[in-house]
Amino acid sequence: SLIYAFYDAFWVLPAFGFLVGWATNFLALFVIFNPVKPIEIRVCGWHACTLHGVFMKRQDEVSTEFSKVVCEVFVNAVHLWEEMLFGEKSEAFFQLLRKHTNTFIDELLGSKKVFVNLLLGTDKFERIRAGMVNELCAEFENVIPYGYAYTDEAMRMQETIEEKMKGLSPEDFEGVLHPAFEEDEIKLIAVGGLFGAIIGLIQEYIFSFLVG
């Protein structure tokens, strides 16, 4: 650094290394999303270049990859069923399952339910039906994994997310995508500064070794 040539304090190179690393990562993250809309630069009436965020000008490709990652990590049959079976609303889900199973049994028997009640007695029939429902609920989590592939195929979540993201306006697309990175932006910028400072320390050591 030019300043180091005139002022060779040990902290100069690490400090400038930190600033360069911080600024580099900040700029890299900035140009990913900015400008949101393309800005055409003209020089003397001639088109020189177009400024457009890296992700923004590749909206279709980014939408495809983003939807793939979202569905592989978050929105898939495994996680959806785990949430329904073991999440905060699991009790409500099993209540709904019991209700519809009871209704299904009644509809399956139809007019024959009267004769079944006469043959078995209402109390015994209710115990048998309750036992069937309880057995279904107990074994449900063991049966569901066999339907994961069908659930993913039926929901078509990846195709739906990809299609919707491709159809977003530039502002909405940035609004959906950017928050996924905001939480780690400060960390990435700080890491850039840290690596810059480390490189500065190494340079300081090398210069001190050569001069000394």
Tell me what the structure shows.
With 212 residues, the protein is mainly alpha-helical. It has one domain (2-211). Helices cover 76% and strands 5% of the residues. It is built from eleven helices and two strands; from the N terminus they run H-H-E-E-H-H-H-H-H-H-H-H-H. The protein has helices at 2-6, 12-33, 59-73, 77-86, 90-109, 112-120, 122-143, 148-155, 157-166, 170-177, 179-211; strands at 39-43, 46-51. The protein has a two-stranded antiparallel sheet with strand order 1-2. Strand 1 (39-43) and strand 2 form a beta hairpin.
Main attributes of the structure:
two-stranded antiparallel sheet, 2 strands, transmembrane helix, 212 residues, elongated, 76% helix, mainly alpha
Structural class: mainly alpha
Name the poorly predicted regions.
Answer: none
Outline: elongated
- The oligomeric state is single chain
Reading side by side through the largest sheet, how are the strands ordered?
A: 1-2
Radius of gyration: 31 Å
* Helical content class: over 70%
Number of extended strands: 2
CA-to-CA gap between the ends? 19 Å
Q: What is the tally of helical segments?
A: 11
SSE order: HHEEHHHHHHHHH
Major sheet description:
2 strands, antiparallel
| Overall pLDDT confidence | 84
**Into which percentage range does the β-strand content fall?**
5-15%
How many structural domains in the coordinates? Answer: 1
